[in-house]
Amino acid sequence: MALSGLGEYERARRLAAAATAEWERERERRGAMIVIAFWSRLLDEHLGRARAALGPEAAATAEAAGRELPLELAVADVGRA
Fold first, then answer.
1. What's the domain range around 31?
2. Residue 70 carries which DSSP code?
3. pLDDT band of 28, cuts 50, 70, 90
4. Does 51 reside within a domain?
């Protein structure tokens, strides 16, 4: 969300997709899903802003790249900001 707030929209989408993929793997491994309503709303707001700024095609490309990226590498990319 912070990256989106800073206008780093592509990186925001990529990191969010990497985190979502990791979350989905954990959910499958543990067999449980946790939904935190206020967190979901914040993600929708900030990442929706990033999607709108990038446009659907660029947002989808960033998301696809993020889903393939191990979470550790996505986080390291943020550290290089």
1. 2-72
2. -
3. confident
4. yes
